[in-house]
Structures are given as structure tokens and as C-alpha cells.
Amino acid sequence: xxxxxxxxxxxxxxxxxIVNYFNENDAVEISLILTNKANAFVLERxxxxxxxxxxxxxxQFLETDEVLHFLTENNINLIVLAGFLLKIPENLIxxxxxxxxxxxxxxxxxxxGKGMYGDNVHKAVVEDKETESGITIHYVNENYDEGKxxxxxxxxxxxTDTFEDVAxxxxxxxxxxxxxxxxxxxxxx
Length: 189
Ligand code: GRF
Description:
By secondary structure, the chain is of the alpha/beta class. Helices cover 38% and strands 23% of the residues.
């Protein structure tokens, strides 16, 4: 049995989509949903889906081993970051080598790094008049957006697209591919 912990800082639509994807799969369980935002909508989703959740402060996450202990006590084998905004500290990277996966809403290495999250990414893509964007699913190492790429998928960006249009295309790609990429990793580990 693979026990997954999902980290999310916002709405958590990807988190919910992943939970639904693995619902019928007896070999995989989304055991925990963790967030650094006490008012994040992902907590409502966790409640609705009957998944245990944990809220922690930035300080607890970055300066203590409390989150690490919570994960190990719960026998977590894989960490999935789905719209999680804090940098992952060294204690987690060391304890979960190649076991932390992130989704980034652009075609890394473009539009990655500091400040490049959420709508900032899509606004930059539209401003630069890119003709395509996409998603990148990658391992997380100590340099946030630079871990080994597992999977990318592209979508066209039209000259008439607003950043909201791009965000919606990206979300569609995320819903389609993120759970499948996790499934693929687990089957090929
Ligand atoms: C996604 O676009 C993800 O790629 C990005 O943040 C967004 C999270 O959306 N890093 P949601 O919380 O899953 O709805």
C-alpha cells in the first residue's frame, strides 16, 4: 500500500482530482492533506473527502521537524505538492529522496523560480506573447523548480488569450495528467 500526503496552499482542486482518481485503487491511499494556510479551501475538500488534514505554520514547517514526524508517524511513502507555495526544507528532502513530486503550471525551465507561481506564471506567459505553455511534473530537490522532469504536456496560447484563459487550459492539463503521472511513477518505481 502506498500512502500519499498531498500538500496544497489554496483551492486544492488538483488534490481533490487526485483523491478521486485513486478512489477505486486499493494499492494507493491519499492518507493526508497538509497546508500552511488555515483558511485554504483545500481543508473543506479534505473534510468532504474524509481525509485527515494538518495545518502548520511557516515556522513549524521551516524550523522544526514537526511536519516530518507527522509524515513518518503516518507511514507516508510519497509526497505530492499540488499548488503548495512554501519551499520544501532540507529535512523533508533528505528523508524523502525522489519521493516528492511537484506540478508547475508552465514548461520548465521557463517561468520557474522565485515569484513564479499561480497566476503570476500565466500573466508572464501572456505578456511575453508565448505561443504555447503547459505543465511540468517534476521531482523536488533543494532548488525548488529544478528537480528532474518526469512529464510535460503543452497547450497553445492564442494571441487573444487572457491569463485566465491560459490558467483554465493549464488546469485541464493538470487534471488529465497529474494523477496518471503519479500512477505511472508508482507502477514503475
Ligand atoms: C495549479 O495550477 C498548480 O499547478 C499551481 O497552483 C495551482 C493550484 O490549483 N502550482 P488548485 O489549488 O489545485 O486548484
